[in-house]
Amino acid sequence: DRRMEPMWEPLLFFAGNDLGELANRQLELRRTAMERRAPLGYARATLESQADHSTRAQMDYSLALADAGRMDEAISLLDREIAGSARPERGGWNRNQQWRWLSLQLRKAQILYNRQHDDRAIAIWQELERTPGLDRSFRINVSMNLAAAYAETGRYQQALDLITTAGEQFARSGGDQIAGSARQFAWIRACALRGLGRRDESETAMQSLDQAEEPQDWGGIALAGNRELRVRAAICLNDVDRLARVLSNPEAQLLTSSDMLQPGVLRRRAELADLRERLFAHPRMTEYAARWRALPGDFQPVLRNFFGSGSDVATAAAGAAPTAAPVARP
Fold this sequence. Notes:
The chain has 330 residues and is mainly alpha-helical. Helices cover 59% and strands 0% of the residues. The protein contains 17 helices and no strands. It is globular and about 60 Å long.
């Protein structure tokens, strides 16, 4: 963001000219936090905010490893912790213990999915759905993640079938509902319907997200913001007008969601390949494009690890696209 240009030099002094210092520092901080079983700061996402401190510290470190290009180590760490946890079908354990096991599985799938190992991530969510003894509200969470992945990878009928069933179960879950969850159902259903050619139904499904008020953190649980979900929805819908409308909001922070516009994400479906080019050519995006800066080549190795795109990274954003938010407390 060129509005931040006065800060570029001091930021690079801190982060290193190739961002390597920043990546290494974050990795070391999170490794120490894991050893102390004390995560750094507040939870940044719904999944993290529902985990106990020890588990969240492990989840944070696994993500830092993946961001540093050490994805196999991250997966191995999570696999060890998963193997040491009780499984739902063994019985004799409470919902907090069950959530710990599940949250580690979900972080593993998230790391794989955000680095475009889609089939491996989907296989994890599918296996979790089949797990005997899994709490009903937790199974809805898994279904939402899986339905989102189906929609984003073009498996529209599977996405629609699954999100419809999950929505019916959610409606019956009563007190287990987390505020704002309906927005997640809305965009996944809308994307699936659009992909099946049911445009009018898709627009109707999007209304609850389009009209939603910004959610507040609910009982200490971090919730995805409306803008984040609207960007993800617009990309899934392949709707450049909607995407431009969201991103060109004058009050919006430039590029905060552009991690979703990375080449690897857009390769998931052939029709998205030129989405970024169509976006920057949109009349609403004139000011946005003028403030956008392609990052220098020295940044590419670190950012390629971070985004997992497998090709050059061309935006000034950072962060990994989230999976769908949990819908119930553990």
